[in-house]
Specification:
AB_hydrolase_sf, eight-stranded mixed beta sheet, Rossmann fold, AB_hydrolase_fold, Alpha/beta hydrolase, 277 residues, monoacylglycerol lipase activity, hydrolase, alpha/beta, globular
Length: 277
């Protein structure tokens, strides 16, 4: 189970020591998960990772300057992607599938453009293309919740789940799984790292038609997913992504927000595994 998977460390050529966890069968290309804003090894839903790891070699990690990884957090998505590639190279990986959630989806898109030969298939969850209208920064209420020094249960419920009884109940269930691991937990993200990450998020969202057109260069199969009531990344951006990517299809999950993949973890895992197969 993911809550029992030990923390590991790999030393990369860029001088960074990356913290990561890995488990699942090794007979297929690894599935590498790329984390959302201020996310760490702990921020993945254990129930979701367990379902994915039943059939895939799953790798989660802290990028540079995050959690247990060393170094200074990059201030652009491209730098984050280059650092993630350093981590993958340090593990000796030559072919992978990527699943990027939110900001991790930004990084996944950039990796697909920088190193297309590395990527087999791509899953983009609750994320947005670079330069699209309506992605330049977050609303004041979202910023107030996600920039707090302690992102507690209320912050998760407001930001990641729809404001309905059913979705909020799913959020409480997720939070119970989130705190279940009691030994060797990852470190929280520092204020300095959060500020650097948010600069990267804002820079990614500056309206730029030419940047948006870059998506046409990604010719790998892509699964685009989102929640129908996402306050952080509105679902219409999933349709923008799908329209720009040559080999993509989209699935929007009902009564869910930015954390739809935690609320609908069983259905989402099944869809991802079928897509990757």
């Amino acid at each position: 189970m993911y809550i029992d998977v030990p923390n590991r460390v790999v030393h990369a050529a860029n001088g960074v020591s990356y913290a990561y966890r890995r488990y699942g069968p090794s007979n297929r290309p690894p599935l590498v998960l790329l984390q959302h804003f201020r996310g760490t090894l702990e921020s993945w839903d254990p129930a979701l990772v367990d379902l994915l790891a039943a059939r895939r070699d799953v790798i989660t990690f802290d990028n540079t300057g995050i959690g247990l990884s060393t170094g200074r957090t990059p201030r652009t998505v491209r730098e984050m992607a280059v650092d993630a590639l350093s981590f993958l190279t340090a593990l000796g990986l030559e072919r992978v599938d990527l699943l990027g959630h939110s900001m991790g989806g930004f990084v996944a898109q950039e990796i697909a453009l920088i190193r297309p030969g590395l990527l087999r298939r791509l899953v983009l969850a609750a994320t947005a293309p670079r330069g699209a209208a309506g992605t330049h920064g977050w609303s004041d209420d979202i910023v107030a919740h996600v920039h707090s020094d302690h992102l507690g249960v209320q912050g998760y419920l407001y930001t990641f789940f729809n404001h309905t009884e059913t979705s909020q109940r799913s959020g409480l269930e997720f939070f119970g799984r989130y705190i279940e691991r009691t030994r060797d937990r990852d470190l929280p993200v520092s204020r300095e790292a959060r500020e650097a990450q948010y600069e990267a998020v804002v820079e990614w969202g500056i309206p730029d038609h030419d940047a948006l057109q870059r998506l046409r260069a990604i010719h790998r199969p892509v699964l685009v997913t989102g929640g129908d009531s996402d306050l952080v990344t509105p679902p219409h951006l999933s349709h923008v992504l799908t329209g720009m990517l040559p080999k993509a299809h989209v699935h929007i999950y009902p009564d869910s927000g930015h954390g739809f993949l935690f609320q609908h973890h069983k259905d989402f895992a099944a869809e991802v595994l079928e897509f990757l197969d």
